[in-house]
């Protein structure tokens, strides 16, 4: 009886993992803007809705919006210049750029669907071209559909982990660990892809892409000597990003 029960658990576990794999394969599509194959389980409209719904809460976590309308208008001007001069204008996303009041946290990020944010702490250290580099990078995250891809990846591993847990107890923890490592690795890839797109958008908009390197130097200095080693971080080390940015500059400059 026990042996029969054990076999049933294994079969159920295998079936759940198999279902997750089939579903993942069926959700594979080519990103029309980057040409990269991705596992996505939501539409652009859903991405936009998630971003719009989440934006107020994200702003609140950083002290709300910066109260200077003149500076906000400047961020909007640079952001929309990048959109209007790049492939971003052909996407269905609704791009909004938000200057956050947080004057302590050096950060910028994007929500799915086009909501882009930069803290005043970072903004205050940048000139216009460096700001364009940061915003171009965040636009790259939107076009790359990185949030949607992470959501789909996370859902896959949750289902696979459940199947492994049903079938073999503690093995589920191993599968869960593999999922986390996969997300971590892809996260670094997302950053590099966004850097690459950011360089392209800067060139297309008439900005000096070398200023993106200066942004990396600012981020490196802000992190200090005790920054987290690359293998423990979701972001590549600034030195590695600089090397890749130089490659992107050479690539796109030769295409002009």
Automatic annotation (TrEMBL):
Keyword Hydrolase (UniProt): yes
Gene3D superfamilies according to UniProt: Metalloproteases ('zincins'), catalytic domain
Keyword field: Hydrolase, Metal-binding, Metalloprotease, Protease, Zinc
Essential cofactor(s): Zn(2+)
One GO term (biological process): proteolysis involved in protein catabolic process
Cofactor note: Binds 1 zinc ion per subunit.
GO annotations of cellular component type: membrane
InterPro entries noted in UniProt: Mito/Outer_Membr_Metalloprot, Peptidase_M48
Domain Peptidase M48: 72-247
One example GO MF annotation: metalloendopeptidase activity
Organism domain of life: Bacteria
PANTHER family: METALLOENDOPEPTIDASE OMA1 (PTHR22726), METALLOENDOPEPTIDASE OMA1, MITOCHONDRIAL (PTHR22726:SF1)
Family: Belongs to the peptidase M48 family.
Stated name of the protein: M48 family peptidase
Species name: Aggregatimonas sangjinii
């Amino acid at each position: 009886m026990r042996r029969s029960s054990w076999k049933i658990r294994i079969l159920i576990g295998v079936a759940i993992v198999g279902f997750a794999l089939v579903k993942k394969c069926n959700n594979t599509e080519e990103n029309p803007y980057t040409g990269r194959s991705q596992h996505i389980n939501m539409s652009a409209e859903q991405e936009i809705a998630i971003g719009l719904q989440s934006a107020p809460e994200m702003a609140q976590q950083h002290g709300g919006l910066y109260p200077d309308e003149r500076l906000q208008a400047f961020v909007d001007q640079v952001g929309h210049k990048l959109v209007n001069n790049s492939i971003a204008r052909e996407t269905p996303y609704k791009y909004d750029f938000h200057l956050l009041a947080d004057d302590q946290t050096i950060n910028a990020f994007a929500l799915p669907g086009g909501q882009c944010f930069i803290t005043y702490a970072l903004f205050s250290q940048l000139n216009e071209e460096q700001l364009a580099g940061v915003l171009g990078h965040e636009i790259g995250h939107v076009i790359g559909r990185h949030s949607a891809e992470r959501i789909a990846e996370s859902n896959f591993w949750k289902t696979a982990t459940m199947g492994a847990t049903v079938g073999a107890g503690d093995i589920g923890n191993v599968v869960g660990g593999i999922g986390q490592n996969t997300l971590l690795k892809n996260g670094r890839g997302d950053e590099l892809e966004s850097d690459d797109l950011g360089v392209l958008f800067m060139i297309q908009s008439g900005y000096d892409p070398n200023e993106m390197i200066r942004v990396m130097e600012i981020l490196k200095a802000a992190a200090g000597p005790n920054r987290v080693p690359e293998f423990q971080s979701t972001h590549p080390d600034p030195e590695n990003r600089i090397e890749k940015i130089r490659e992107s500059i050479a690539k796109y400059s030769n295409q002009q």
